[in-house]
Amino acid sequence: MEDKTKIYVVTHGNFIIPKVPGNYSLFVGANGKDDINADYRDDSGNNISYLNPHYCELTGLYWMWKNSSDDILGLCHYRRFLSLNYFSDDPKYFLTAKKAEEILEDYDLITAERYTFYMRVFDKSIDHPNHDDVYLLRDVVKDIYPDYLEDYDWFFWDNNKIAWYNMMICKKELLDSYCEWLFAILSEFDKRHDISVETGYRVRLQGCLSERLLNVWIHHNISPNKVKYLRYVKTDEKSHEIIKHLGFAVKDLIWPFYRLFHKRVVEENTK
Question: What is the pLDDT of residue 271?
């Protein structure tokens, strides 16, 4: 019997995937490359695998959108997994397909816990993306999805939290809706921005922008009590959860005072 739920673990090279039921490896950026030890490739069927240097894990997300018909779909990374235990990094606590199904009986979306800044997300946008990128992306959203503009402005200018890494698990129809919105915005952004001039980490600009856009889309479409934020484990790093969350708490204490001196002013600053 076919699985009801698939959580795709995107990778660009060989790796030892933890044995997590319902997790399947997806080779992203596979276009023109030899096989690796992955269950799927993102250059089969309807795909944008060739865009992987710029779109990163999004070529995997696009492939899932266009080629998978499972009831519930998820995206994680080969070295980042969602965990049900707040302190242990043991893979036995990594989110399984069955547990995802149980969570989604009460929630609409599962994603990574949010990182907390003491300043606005906009003020942290200094390289990939930088302020010009944020304003250009805002113009795109304003032109093709104007009903999201308020959410966009809230996220960048009146908010200090972000869910990173484009990690998400939800029902297929919700993922379809998100992908239609996301890739329409990125396609239009590509028409207005010459990615060929970028070097270094900024080559991955669209992948970075999409992390911000996921938060905008969630704010617009899903009630806060219907989003399940789970801790993510980086398998190549030792976690320090207590220290990290003490830092988050301190930043949240600073945030109201920071806002006093950084009012939400958008229109007069946009280009």
Answer: 45
* Total number of domains in the chain: 1
Which CATH number does the domain housing residue 99 bear?
Answer: 3.90.550
Beta-carbon count within 10 A of 41 CB: 21
Residue with structure tokens 């990163």? 56
Domain that holds residue 225: 5-269
Instruction: Supply the pTM of this predicted model.
Output: 0.92
Tell me the C-alpha distance between 92 and 110, whole Å. 18
What is the chain's mean pLDDT, rounded? 92
Instruction: Name the pairing type of β-strands 40-41 and 109-112.
Output: unpaired
Picking from 7, 51, 57, the residue whose alpha carbon sits closest to that of residue 27 is 57
Asked if 59 and 44 count as a contact pair (C-beta separation under 8 A), the reply is no
Sign of the Cα torsion 84, 61, 133, 154 reads negative
